Amino acid sequence: MTKTKYCTYMLTHLALLKNKNKVLHLIE
After folding, report:
1. CA distances from 28 to 20, 21, 22, 25 (A)
2. What is the full per-residue pLDDT of the chain (28 aa) written as tens digits?
């Protein structure tokens, strides 16, 4: 995996985690 692909993967992963937390927060 190239550095750029890894960075993109990490950014996407962090964005998904943030969205998941937002959704969980809204549900509670």
Report:
1. 12, 11, 10, 5
2. 689 999 999 999 999 999 998 888 887 7
